[in-house]
Specification:
Length: about 210
């Protein structure tokens, strides 16, 4: 039987560009998935019905206790530049020595893609389900978004950046004190062909447990 990933380089599993994000089967997509870069994205982004499908996939994740410990925030259109002003002001307050170039970059962060989808972990103390498990579920939500968006033909990248860790920005997003940004997922089209990166050697990471 032919190996499942016959095109991988012998060396460190670099896929040819044309083999990336092969949506012919679920397994092929998982074997070839590659993020785009928010630094090199353009439109169009997902339509309202695309977003509905992406979100329907997003919530279809393992979720111990059926708590749905996550929610979504969407930035599109004008909301991106309006939020950009908030990020710029906060960056300026944090780094008063930074010049116009740095401030402009921060103001434009969300303008790099037509749609930015925030995944918010709402994990909270629970009598049975550890917070850690709820947060892992938020990570799974992010991953499902990447897979669904890629399957629909969009380029996407899971980012966080400083924006995800600043309490003032969190307040401007409307987050409650216990909520955290799990991901800011940029959705659009890659401006240029994607290049793979070396992938970890999965076999080297595997330990078959045995008694000592
Ligand atoms: C929780 C999390 C946060 C990330 N934040 C950033 C980020 O802020 N900026 C960035 O360039 N990549 C970030 N990445 C990495 C990208 O999502 C992505 O993995 C990278 O572009 C490589 O592409 P790949 O997914 O095809 O390996 C983050 C990944 C994770 C899991």
């Amino acid at each position: 039987m032919a190996p499942a990933i016959a095109f991988w380089g012998e060396d460190r599993q670099i896929a040819a560009m044309s083999d990336l994000n092969d949506t012919s089967t679920v397994l092929r997509l998982l074997e070839t998935r590659k993020s785009a870069s928010a630094k090199a994205m353009t439109g169009p982004g997902p339509s309202a019905s695309d977003l509905d499908r992406i979100l329907a996939c997003a919530v279809r994740v393992p979720d111990h206790g059926k708590l749905a410990p996550w929610r979504f925030l969407l930035w599109e259109g004008e909301a991106r530049s309006q939020f950009g002003e908030i990020m710029r002001a906060r960056w300026q307050a944090l780094h008063p020595d930074h010049g116009a170039e740095s401030l402009d970059f921060v103001r434009g962060l969300f303008l790099r893609a037509p749609v930015v989808l925030g995944v918010i972990s709402t994990a909270a103390e629970h009598p049975k389900i550890p917070v850690w498990e709820q947060q892992l579920s938020a990570g799974a939500v992010c991953m499902n978004i990447l897979i669904a968006a890629t399957a629909l033909g969009f380029g996407c990248q899971w980012n966080t950046d400083w924006v995800a860790y600043d309490r003032e920005i969190a307040a401007a997003m409307g987050l409650a004190p216990h909520e955290r940004v799990a991901g800011l997922i940029y959705l659009g089209q890659a401006l240029s062909p994607l290049e793979d990166r070396p992938r970890p050697d999965a076999a080297a990471l595997l330990t078959r447990w045995k008694t000592r």
